[in-house]
Specification:
about 1200 residues
Length: about 1200
């Protein structure tokens, strides 16, 4: 087989022109503590820090690598290609601790992968000469180092461990097909043959404990999950609930077993990490249990909501009952009598009204009779990782339904649909097809599941129908083939093949890459081991591959072409056609040398029919020219496609068909579009798979720690391509990302600061900090300015300097609108909308999947996602892993239209994700103007405090004493310092000799003269009431749960973590201290306000000063409305950086709101203390992230990645690749 050099030169180092540098890789816990640090990591200098972290932390072999190696020579194999083994004699000369080490250079990994592929390729006769083998080895190393392409993660984990280092281990129950003897063999070594496949489809029979049955499936899944792979299964063979059993009983039904499998998957951490297993569950629409299956996740999430609400209500009611049992002044004989103890009667009645079970009410009274004065009742919240979610089922898999054209036609025509028993095929139930369809749409709208797989379309493009139907997919839905098969994936980075100077896509270079990676994946089939005999057999017989691409969205932007455009779709179609055409042509070339796949002759006519349909789509023929299709593809629109790309695509298919007719094909399938999650970050792709970008401004991780704010690098290139001059490009970019400098800034600049006493040295320090922050106020604090300057020049006192919420710019006299204008200039607007010079006709080029930042209004419409998939699907063997993004205000009708459009545009599958549809996602991260009730609720918040105040006044008039009780001249009390939502509050008390409360003082030094005076008068009024005999209980009952700002996270108080207002906090503190009201010691976030639903915040350590945590106050992202308040979300991630730790968090709404614009929610508050600052889901949403926390590293940097999620911080993915 001929393999030429395209990227390297013979006798030259394949790394020629690449500068390798040593870097440090650090991974931190969410609290900022160090998890792992790897120093002296040798990588190409062009790699980002994220790419460095991924190869070092995820893909380096961490143990067992011999420090001294020797060649293990094999007959017929060139010496340089022979495997290596530990050199035992040389190892003995080293200290024991140095004999076995870990990988530390990227060159070692490139050599391990490329060398292993070359070795197995040689053993399987893929190379006609040693020169060809060397060409392949060098070209593959070049592409890995230059980030031109990458295989799926299991290749990086497992490939070459034995070949490069001689590592061996006990067999793990795997099998492989031995071509030398022509049969399946059981692996005798864990590493000699790697497991390079990411995607599996497992069959399951209607058998409880037999091989291939239900319980056997859980065992097979466990083996796959353990090694980092994912799997999918169609469970339609299992009989439905109530169907007969052989022993005479009735089946418990499909759902009972799905729940077992779901819990098993949740218990196994994929790849040994902290992320969940990757699993797909599929069910046909005619299964008897289909209705229950469709609503499974929706109902389970309702259980979580009920657990969260019910546990909190029950806890509160039971504590009230217990407190009433032990109230003061009660007679022992009536203390526990409900009819005679009035407080108890009231508490019981309230509990009954709240539907607390009578059994629990009576149980608490019984415990009180036995002397119990405190009880614990667990509370649950809606956090994804909480006990609430762990309690319910259905949360550890992606669920899909299998829809045939017959069903969808019945929906359109209003027809009936039959559910069929699995035991005898008879009708179990008949119902309107529309009813089932509505349930699917409602469930997708509510919980983002189930996804849809279009069974008829999938099988009309099936290359091997003689061996059975395609019934399932892998977890991410891009690999669709026969049951008990596997697929290994690789993706090519499109941006590396775009010549920016010429403005052309290098089609020949791309073709060369497609050929080499097709060969690589084919070799991987030969060298692999598999989890069971059936998969090993079918993988040998069909040899399915999963070559795809990444970075399409970024390349279209650089080309100056909108993602949502006919030209963009035409280019996507052409590149997809080139990919599959070149891959099938290479498969035919391999078949010429090694033979076609085993079942090719049986399926020859069907496969050629499918490939001819691919070719017809490249020529965009009329629908009547397609063969065997009921839904017709979207061909390449010649009017919108560059001629050179169209010609290249059509030529690839002409070559593929010509070669295939002559030699057959080595592989039944060759291509699909995978999510490219972790490997996309490894290749430094701006976009993954076929997805558009998620944000224009991103935060680049720095080698020394911290983050640096940068514009998406596609933006400047796109502006140049659109004809903007260098000066105009600079201004547009600065509008988006900010100037990062005080120079020429309005209002706040070098001159205005000098007028206020700032020196050049201090201003230069500020300048160094500005590129890192998302709000300029975070660059003005004692760590940047210097404590001495703050005190001596600015005349700030310690309270102001140490305040986590002190706004120095406002203190200096800058107005709010002046600060905002300067902030927009320096820190940018995070969007190109309304940028200077930029034509509105060009806005679409820069559209992203969601709105960009605070000011952005544009986003790619859902239909455009579907149309882009439809442009690529006709040219792929498999399918596409992609989510249809929808805004939160999308309706059920919108979801239905998206599903129906996906079917009619010939997609093989689709998954809708409506922003905020998951219960675990905080509402405040998706709250937008569509919530019409929000303003009404805000009005209620404004009015609400009046009622308690009137109540307190009424009580005072009723029980006021005639004579005021004087306090002693010298009296005891305490001072409590705390911070409420970032606002510092000092509460001081004065006591009588008997320890009862007689007066209070309240100080909120930041709030201005009017507010401070009002609080002072309020404290005097309360003090007078106390001294005239008003019981503290009356004040507490009146003012606890009053709602107004400031409110939110409370730090510095041991008992209170949240409060709904300053007054609420004060009277909680007083009631806990002087009345023993421990039931008021915790406030859930739901108590903040009627429009806020969020995750429960964590309180700082009891002995931790409140300055160690930075609460955030985020302005409403909607410019037209200033009334909307945003709830503070929980602390998620803290990483040591070069941050400053102070600021008001009320800037332009972008970044992390914690004093350091690092995109990770982390800032350094003190050179001694290190961490720890909270980030919020609100800010994550503004940056384009999903708002949920990564299960592996805790960062709020998850983005949609195909049908899965990917963490932009650590590279973790919820998928199988």
């Amino acid at each position: 087989m001929r393999i030429d050099r395209k990227f390297t030169r013979e006798s030259n180092d394949p790394y020629e022109g690449i500068k390798f540098v040593e870097r440090v890789s650090k991974i931190n816990n969410a609290d900022g503590s160090l998890v792992a640090e790897i120093k002296n990591v040798l990588v190409p200098d062009s790699w980002s820090q994220v790419a460095v972290d991924i190869i070092a932390q995820k893909y380096f072999r961490k143990a067992g690598v011999p420090a001294r190696l020797k060649k293990k020579f094999e007959a017929g194999i060139p010496e340089w290609l022979c495997p290596s083994a530990p050199d035992e004699e040389a190892l003995k000369e080293l200290p024991v601790a140095e004999q076995y080490i870990c990988e530390s250079t990227s060159k070692e990994v490139f050599h391990r992968l490329a060398g292993c592929w070359t070795y197995w390729g040689w053993k399987n006769n893929c190379f006609s000469s040693e020169k060809v083998a060397r060409n392949y080895y060098d070209e593959m190393r070049y592409m890995l180092a230059r980030q031109l392409a990458a295989p799926n993660s299991p290749q990086w984990f497992n490939t070459g461990i034995n070949w490069a280092y001689g590592l061996e281990g006990p067999a793990q129950g795997h099998y492989y097909f031995d071509e030398a003897v022509g049969k399946i063999q059981k692996s005798t070594n864990a590493y000699e043959r790697p497991q390079p496949h990411a995607c599996f489809i497992l069959s399951v029979d209607d058998d409880l404990v037999g091989d291939g049955g239900i319980m056997d499936l859980w065992r097979q899944e466990a083996r796959l999950f353990k090694f980092g792979s994912g799997t999918g299964s169609n469970f339609s063979n299992l009989r439905g609930s109530g169907e007969g059993l052989s022993g005479g009983g009735k089946s418990s039904g499909l759902m009972s077993f799905l729940k077992i499998g779901d819990r098993a998957a949740g218990a196994i951490k994929s790849g040994g990490t902290t992320r969940r297993a990757a699993k797909m569950v599929t069910l046909d629409m005619d299964h008897p249990d289909i209705e229950e299956y469709i609503e499974w996740k929706v109902k389970e999430e309702r259980k979580v909501a009920a657990l969260a609400a019910g546990s909190r209500i029950t806890r509160r009611c039971l504590k009230d009952i217990l407190k009433a049992c032990w109230g003061e002044g009660l007679k022992e004989e009536t203390r526990f009598e409900v009819q005679k103890n009035k407080p108890l009667k009231k508490a019981v009645r309230k509990a009954l009204d709240c539907f607390v079970p009578e059994n629990y009410i009576y149980r608490v009274i019984q415990l009180a009779q036995q002397g119990t004065k405190e009880i614990e009742f667990e509370e649950y919240d809606t956090s994804w990782t909480s006990e609430g979610y762990l309690t319910v089922s259905g949360q550890n898999s992606n669920n899909s339904v299998r829809l045939s054209n017959d069903f969808l036609n019945s929906v359109e025509c209003g027809g009936e649909w039959n559910l069929l028993r699995r035991t005898d095929g008879e009708i179990s139930k008949t119902l309107p097809a529309r009813d089932l369809w509505d349930k699917v749409n409602f469930s997708s709208w509510s919980s983002a599941d189930p996804g849809l797989q279009f069974h008829t379309t999938i099988n009309e493009w099936h290359t091997c129908p003689e061996d059975g139907q395609i019934r399932a997919s892998n977890p991410c839905s891009e690999y669709m083939f026969l049951d008990d098969t596997a697929c290994n994936l690789a993706s090519i980075n499109l941006m590396k093949f775009y010549n920016d100077e010429k403005g052309l896509f290098e089609a020949e270079d791309y073709r060369h890459a497609c050929r080499l990676w097709t060969l690589t994946l084919e070799i991987s089939v030969s060298m692999a081991q598999f989890p069971n005999k059936a998969i090993a057999q079918k993988s040998y017989e069909f040899r399915t591959l999963g070559l795809g691409y990444a970075n399409l969205g970024a390349m279209l932007m650089v080309m100056g072409i909108p993602y949502d455009s006919e030209k963009g779709r035409a280019i996507a179609g052409a590149i997809s056609a080139m990919t599959t055409g070149a891959s099938y042509a290479m498969s035919a070339e391999i078949a010429k040398e090694l033979g076609a796949f085993t079942h090719y002759e049986k399926n020859k006519s069907s496969m050629l029919r499918v490939l001819k349909n691919h070719s017809r789509a490249a020529h965009n023929v009329e629908s009547n020219e397609y063969d065997g299709l009921s839904i017709f593809p979207q061909g390449i629109q010649a009017d919108h496609c560059p001629t050179y790309l169209l010609d290249a695509a059509q030529k690839e298919w002409a070559d593929a068909l010509a070669l295939g007719k002559k030699y057959g094909f080595r592989n039944a399938q060759t291509t699909c579009i995978a999510p490219t999650g972790t490997i996309g970050l490894l290749m430094d792709c701006d976009t993954t798979g076929i997805e558009p970008d998620y944000a224009l401004v991103k935060y680049k991780k720095l080698a020394g720690g911290g983050y640096f704010k940068i514009i998406n690098q596609s933006v400047p290139g796109a502006l140049r391509r659109l004809g903007y001059k260098p000066g105009e490009v600079k201004e547009i970019v600065e509008y988006c990302v900010g100037s990062g400098s005080l120079d020429s800034s309005p209002y706040i600049n070098r001159n205005s600061l000098k007028e206020k006493g700032f020196t050049d040295k201090v201003i230069n320090n500020i300048e160094l900090e500005l590129p890192r922050v998302f709000d300029i106020s975070f660059a003005f604090n004692k760590f940047v300015l210097g404590e001495e300057f703050c005190k001596d020049v600015l005349k700030l006192d310690d309270k102001q300097i140490d305040s986590i919420a002190f706004n120095l710019l406002a203190h200096l006299g800058f107005a709010e609108d002046e600060i905002q204008s300067a902030n927009d200039y320096i820190c940018g607007r995070m969007t190109i909308e309304n940028a200077p010079h930029l034509k509105k006709s060009h806005y679409a080029v820069f559209d992203c999947a969601t709105k960009c930042g605070k000011y952005g209004e544009r986003f790619i419409r859902p239909e455009a996602h579907i149309q882009m998939m439809a442009a690529a699907q006709p040219f792929l063997s498999g399918a596409i892993s992609k989510t249809i993004n929808m805004p939160n205000d999308a309706t059920l009708e919108d979801v239905e239209k998206a599903h129906m459009l996906s079917w009619k545009l010939m997609l093989k599958g689709t998954a809708v994700y409506r922003d905020g549809s998951k219960l675990s996602q905080p509402l405040n991260s998706v709250a937008i103007e569509s919530f019409k009730q929000l303003q009404m609720e805000e009005d209620e918040e404004t009015v609400a405090p009046i009622a308690p105040a009137m109540k307190a006044a009424e009580q005072m008039t009723k029980i006021i004493q005639q004579k005021r009780r004087a306090l002693p001249h010298r009296r005891k009390g305490y001072t409590q310092k705390a911070s409420i939502g970032g606002h510092k509050v000092y509460l001081r008390t004065g006591e009588y000799e008997d320890g009862t409360l007689g007066e209070i003082f309240i100080d909120m030094h930041k709030e201005g003269a009017a507010y401070r005076s009002l609080m002072n008068c309020f404290a005097i009024a309360i003090s007078l009431g106390l001294q005239h005999g008003v019981p503290l209980e009356e004040f507490s009952d009146a003012f606890v749960f009053t709602r107004f700002e400031p409110n939110g996270l409370v730090t510095g108080n041991k008992s209170i973590s949240m409060s709904t207002s300053t007054i609420d906090y004060i009277f909680r503190e007083l009631a806990i201290t002087y009345l023993g009201r421990d039931d008021l010691a915790q406030v859930t976030p739901d108590d903040l306000r009627a429009d806020s639903i969020g995750k429960k915040d964590q309180q700082s350590n009891d002995d931790e000063d409140d300055d160690n945590v930075l609460p955030l106050l985020i302005e409403n992202e909607k410019k037209e409305s200033t009334d909307t308040k945003v709830q503070i979300a929980p602390a998620i991630k803290a990483v040591p950086t070069n941050g400053n730790g102070h600021g008001n968090g009320n800037g332009n709404g972008h970044g992390n709101g914690n004093g350091h614009g690092n995109g990770n929610g982390a800032t350094k508050l003190s050179s001694k203390q290190g961490t720890a600052v909270a980030t919020t889901a609100v800010i994550a949403k503004l940056k384009g992230y999903e708002g949920d926390a990564c299960q592996e590293c805790g960062s709020l940097t998850l983005v949609r990645n195909g049908t899965c999620l990917k963490c932009m911080t650590c590279g973790a993915t919820s998928g199988c690749s």
